[in-house]
Amino acid sequence: MADIETIHTVAELRARVRIWRAAGQRVALVPTMGALHAGHVALMQAAHQHAERIVVSIFVNPTQFAPTEDLARYPRTLDADREKAGLAGVDVAFAPDVAEMYPQGFATTVSLDGPALGLETDFRPTHFAGVATVVAKLFSQVAPDVALFGEKDYQQLAVVTRMARDLDLPVKVIGVPTVREPDGLALSSRNVYLSAEERRIAPVLYRALGVAAQAIRSGAPVAEAVESARDDVRSAGFALDYLDARHAETLAPVAGRGDGPLRLLVAARLGATRLIDNIAVPD
Ligand SMILES: Nc1ncnc2c1ncn2[C@@H]1O[C@H](COP(=O)(O)OP(=O)(O)OP(=O)(O)O)[C@@H](O)[C@H]1O
Ligand SMILES: CC(C)(CO)[C@@H](O)C(=O)[O-]
Ligand code: BAL
C-alpha cells in the first residue's frame, strides 16, 4: 500500500503546510477532480522538479458543471486515487467536501476575459468562472510555490496563468505536456464513458489536429487546414463543438501564421461523451 495522508479541511491543510514552510520546504499543488490516470501522474512527477512537498487536491467542483452536465456521474475513486498519488510521491491528498469549499452564503466568483473568451466558453458559458474561482481558493488554501496544470485542458491553463498574473497571486503556474494513449487519444477521466466503438473512433480527433498542424507548417492557409480538419472530425462521426486556430498564449483569434505562435484546439462529442484536445503548430 502506498496510501497517503488525506486532509479534508482547510484548517488542517494550512497547519500541515505551515510545518513544511517552517522547515524551508517548497510546496507544489496539483489540482484535480480525481479519477487519477497517467496524465495526472505526469503532473505529480513534474512537481518533484519544483518542490520538496506535493499536495494533490481531489475535488469534483460543482460550480464548473452546468446543470445539464455530468456532475452526478463524474467518476469518483478516492481510494484508488490516494494509492496512485502515494506511488507518485505525493505527501497529502486534499479532499474537501462541497460544504468545506462553498460554505453557506458563498457569494464570490472570479470574472474573466481574455483567454476565457470563446472556444469552451461558447459551449460551457459558466465553466471557467467555476474553475477560476475554485483554483483561486485552492491557491489561497495551499499557498503553493508552484501549481501544475495539463496542456490537455489548454484554455484552462491559459485562463489560470492569466488569472495568477492579473491578481498577483504568488504562485508559478506550470503547464505539462499531454499524456496520450499509444493511438494518440489524450488520457482523460471521461474516456471511461466511451463505448468500444466510440473508443475506436476517438483518436481521429488528435490525428486531424496533427494533419492540420503539419499542413499549416508546410504553408497551407490556416482557414483551409482548419476546415479540412473539421470535415475529418465530422466524417468520423463526431458532433463538432469547435475546431479553431488561436494565438498560442493569448488565445486571441488569428487570421494566419503571421499572427504569432498558433495552437489548434478542438472539442467534439461522441455520443454522450465530450472530448477536448489541442496541438501546437510547429514553427
Ligand atoms: N492526458 C493528460 N495529460 C496531461 N495532463 C492531464 C491529462 N488529463 C488531465 N490532465 C490534467 O490534470 C488536471 C486535472 O484534470 P481533471 O481531473 O479534470 O482530469 P481529466 O482527465 O482532464 O478529466 P476530464 O475528463 O474532466 O477532462 C488538469 O490540469 C488537466 O489538464
Ligand atoms: C483545475 C480543476 C481541478 C478545477 O476544478 C479542474 O478544472 C480540472 O481537473 O482540470
Ligand atoms: N478537466 C477540466 C474539467 C472539466 O471539464 O470540468
UniProtKB/TrEMBL annotation:
Positions of beta-alanine binding: 64
Pfam families documented for this protein: Pantoate_ligase (PF02569)
Catalytic reactions of this protein: (R)-pantoate + beta-alanine + ATP = (R)-pantothenate + AMP + diphosphate + H(+)
A cellular component term, taken from the record's GO annotations: cytosol
HAMAP family with a match to the protein in the record: PanC
Quaternary structure note: Homodimer.
Annotated protein name in UniProt: Pantothenate synthetase
Origin organism lineage: Bacteria, Pseudomonadati, Pseudomonadota, Alphaproteobacteria, Hyphomicrobiales
